[in-house]
Amino acid sequence: MGVALELREYQGGYLVMNEIVVDPTATLMWPSLLQSAQRIKATTLTQLFAENPDRVASLTFEAAGYSVDFSKNLIDDTVVTQLLALARELGIEALRDAMFAGEIINTSERRRVLHTALRAPRESSLMIEGVDVVAEIQAVLDQMGRFVDQVRSGFWRGATGKVITDVVNIGIGGSHLGPLLAGEALRRRVSAPLTVHFIANIDGADFDTETASLNPETTLFVVSSKSFTTAETMMNASLAKAWIIHALGDEAVAKHFVAVSGDRRAVASFGIDPDNTFAMWDFVGGRYSLGSAIGLSTMLLIGRDAFIEMLAGFRDIDEHFTTAPLEKNVPVLFGLLRIWYSCFLGAQSLGVMPYAADLRSLPGYLQQLVMESNGKRVTRDGKPLATPSGPIVWGAPGTDGQHSFFQLLHQGTHLAPMDLVGYLHPLSSHRESHDQLMANLFAQSQALAFGRSAEQLIAEGTPSWLVPHRTVPGNHPSTLILGERLNPRAFGALIGLYEHDVFVQGAILGIDSFDQWGVELGKDLAAVITDEVQGVKAIGDHDPSTGRAIERYRAARRDWAT
Length: 562
Ligand code: F6P
Fold this sequence. Notes:
- By secondary structure, this protein is of the alpha/beta class.
- The protein has helices at 29-41, 45-51, 55-58, 77-89, 92-101, 133-153, 177-186, 204-211, 231-248, 253-256, 264-270, 296-302, 304-323, 330-344, 362-374, 406-411, 431-450, 454-459, 467-470, 488-509, 520-533, 544-560; strands at 7-10, 13-16, 60-63, 66-69, 127-128, 131-132, 166-170, 195-199, 219-224, 257-261, 277-279, 349-355, 392-394, 418-423, 478-483.
- It has three domains: 29-92 and 324-509, Glucose-6-phosphate isomerase like protein, domain 1 (Rossmann fold), CATH 3.40.50; 129-308, Glucose-6-phosphate isomerase like protein, domain 1 (Rossmann fold, 3-Layer(aba) Sandwich), CATH 3.40.50.10490; 518-559.
- It has a six-stranded mixed sheet, sandwiched between helices. It has a five-stranded parallel sheet with strand order 8-7-9-10-11, with helices on both faces.
- The longest helix is centred in the C-terminal third of the chain and has 22 residues, at 488-509.
- Mean pLDDT is 95; it is low at 1-5 and 10-16.
- The site of 6-O-phosphono-beta-D-fructofuranose has 14 residues, from loops.
């Protein structure tokens, strides 16, 4: 794809997409928001609720089947108005439209950002340099569908004629975390004739653990790597190939391996049949790729129809994001809220607590989505950020987290905003369990915001020496995200919501949310050090600490032979 400078007229001026980024701290709204921050720091959620009886109604919004209640956040109407004005001043709508139109907004990699095209309506089209990318995407979806039908129906057989019972996705980062999350979240909603396993870590122990109970005759490997160069994936794919060949011979590779990649030639030279390769595009970033062929293992698990339903959920939120007025636009409000906490109130993290055990991998998925996207030190034009970068993401499923780190949230001194996610209808037949699960979700949201005061404790007869220990000050912000039921459509909408939330944050900060140069240094060093620890090369120039660790490892490695 070519490199283009996009010059767009915007609010009487020009927005040069690739080169000029407006420093958000230089906007008209920034000083007003700084003033508002002083006011909000001097108030509490209790006071904010007391001042405005309509607070819940005015701060609860609907999007793609979710009800999102922002009322237990440290904001008021003025803050929201100012944040929206900031978004407008920074041209958020123009940037959003530029992404959907396929302009080159990933400026440092000179790439378009078109994960939204993965879920565009089948009958739509988007011409990029003379090619209809929607048609290309639909063709790959059809190819996936045909393959999935064959495997799930038992038509596709292993080399010895046995039906495939187990699928192993080999991939890492965006080629692992999305399929892992989706597999856990959706497998219960649809009948699955297969079990899907995941191998990501380069630790050979991971490979051994996952394959220990598998029969090579009935196992299919999906090697998922956009680049087909990622060290972890290539190592694990080689182990898998050796495992199959050892058990079934060279010819078996064709029936036991398929690949998802943007590099067909690399796939072919690895030995996987080009007919069994599913395409990826450079306009889909790894962490945004669940709706692409990277989701092949998900489609194998849940079937073609449920996968299409998941894409419809993504599309629901795309439509909301592109059409809802900013005042009611949930991803916009979310993105602005994150900016408010990090740039004005000093929060450094975002906690995400899914009150749905099947979303247990959501925090891990969001760590990559949010932190690889917005963990940047410069703006799109290469200038140092004048603001903090995006937040550190962490979390655990409720109620597990309540019995580990929630103590700090209730009585620690950090400002740690959180998203609490839950569903009205249960995933299991255990209704009593669901009642208690949701009761805990609501209880935490209340306890975090309003706590338990010393006066209350004294009135309840608590001994005075114990009162300070038992006092829970409250004023800890959280957003309540409630869906009807965790089905493929609702799942797609939730993930799309976070994708656009991340986009909004990046757009406000002026960050390129779609590159990830920071991870390259570690990869380069690991390649050099691998040669050194294996004695292929002499130990080179390292800091004394790293040099010593390499020496120690080499010494230990010499013992392996004995
Ligand atoms: O190292 C980071 C990264 O490039 C991620 O952005 C990506 O999701 C992951 O590695 C895997 O990349 P690939 O799909 O090319 O193997």
